[in-house]
Amino acid sequence: MVGDVGKCVAPPFDVISPDLQQQLYQICRYNIVRITKGATTPSDNDSHNQYTRAADYLNCWIKDGVLKQDAQEAIYAYVQDFQLASTAFQRLSFIAQARLEEFGKTVRPHEKVFDEPMIDRLNLKRATCASFGLVSMLYEDQQKIADKIVERAARQKPLIDFVTPDLIGGQNARHRLFAITAKEDIDAIVRMMSDKNCIIADGHHRYTAGLIYSQESANPSARYEMIAFTNTCQQGLKILATHRLVGNLENFDIEKLLADLKENFEITEFAFDVAGSKIEAQQKMQFFMQAENDNDRNAFGIYGGTNSFYVAVLKDKKVMESAMPNASSACRTLDVSILHKLILEKLLGIDKQKLANAENIEYVKGTSDALDDSIALVDAGQKQVLFFMNPVKMQQLKMVTDAGERMPQKSTYFYPKMYTGLVINKL
Prior knowledge:
- By secondary structure, the protein is of the alpha+beta class.
- It has 15 helices and 18 strands.
- The strands form four sheets. Strands 3-8-5-9-2-1-7-6 form an eight-stranded mixed β-sheet, with helices on both faces. The protein has a six-stranded antiparallel β-sheet with strand order 12-14-13-16-11-15, with helices on both faces. The chain has a two-stranded antiparallel sheet with strand order 4-18.
- Helix 3 runs parallel beside helix 4 and helix 4 crosses helix 7 (about 205-215).
- The longest helix is centred in the middle third of the chain and has 20 residues, at about 275-295.
- It starts with 17 loop residues before the first helix and ends with a strand.
């Protein structure tokens, strides 16, 4: 009925811009964006809004046979093939129902959440009584029991197979979905997961909304959430950086910022004078940042619209002990913690409230196109300064969550994103 299933899926709701939303609306009348991030209208009210329309779409699609439940229960194998820097990778995950548990040892969040998107997901679940987007959960299994089962499943004909341009930046990625129905395979995955502690990679808002909904719903199925589990012991699990683009600051002066930074940071300049050397200067800056990161130093790239890129390297990690006295060493030594405390908050006056209100910060995904666009905004005077970040390391993520703490919002960017619409769980 739908033709190309690849035209019916969408990236996660929180990375869909208004322009992308319109593109997805136009691609196919059955695109899942109509449910997960529906368009709003000026006449919306409590009884007619994007959530009631989402429920109408879901019910109509089920009634018309556009969506049809599988004949037998299954765990689903989700295989993603993609490239980064011309190198091919494959990420293996399995999708299953997991019993919701309060955050603690078994389920650990790694980022702070915003109230608005969490309430948005909760309203959608209340209206539709269904789960759409995947919560991405990390676990560790050196034996790779589930990975081997997923690899075997991937030799079958896929239920869904599509290649999509990564609409949120990057290159094309191939997505394939397979059913795992053999009892011995399902039992093996269940046994393997029985003693695992997990970290939420993506979907903090969806998981939190699921917790709240499970407490207010009389439906026993609400105690479970649709989750994609990914083993950290594989090469295909990639974390990219999320950079910070700053604007709307009063009396901002890049030269003053650089002078103020010298109290706690060593500053290295990468100057340029023509377009070609600008690209070269940016590349040198990023190579320098990476080298410092490899040597366990905290380094940030800076571009303020002048004829130079800069790298600021923290002189002494001990300065964070007074800046974050109640935080663990793992959290204090994160690049993102240092940037937020010593630069954004202390030097630029962007406090927690302004961060929460998104008054001055835009979060830029770690792809070349996104960075080029951000640099152009600074050059045009529409933004004031761009801070380049190194990616969070998996070991850092584990150490922070082991300490029972969370990183600042948008600290990580797991790539590629898991698309929405491959599986739906109607409660």
